[in-house]
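User: I'm preparing a small set of examples for a lab meeting where we compare how different chains pack in three dimensions. I only have the primary sequence for this one, and I'd like the structure in token form so I can line it up with the others. Please keep the answer compact; I'll paste it straight into my notes.
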Amino acid sequence: MLIGQLVKETGLTKDTIRYYEKHGLISIGRKERRDNNYKEYSDVMKTRLFTVKRLKNFGFTLNEIADLLNLIDVNEASCGNVSHKIEEKVTLLDGKIRELISIRAVLFNSLKKCNDNCNPSNPEDNCPILISDL
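Assistant: Understood. Below is the structure token output for the 134-residue chain.
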């Protein structure tokens, strides 16, 4: 099928499909091209794109997706291997959540300081919280 049909069937955009191809998540060889050099996408590529889409929805990065696709390609995407990758991702997300909570606390405290202490002599001046420690 041509890319237009693939777009309809996968819900991905042409740009996204081309981006995934550029980054090696899918590949179309010379023999999968028509005489006019149009790419002919197989049902295997459509299935692979659905896998990429599913993994993206799980929050995996493109590099992580590439690693998982490699496991699938060499038939090593066992439950044990996949569970390990998911555990790594959950640990990474937990760290990011803690970091975001910390940033939120800093912002909330800055907002409180700004509201309580921000009285520049000229209301048109920059907020002092951005340029000094209150």
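A couple of notes for your slides: Residues 84-120+127-134 form one domain. The mean pLDDT is 90.

User: Perfect, thanks.
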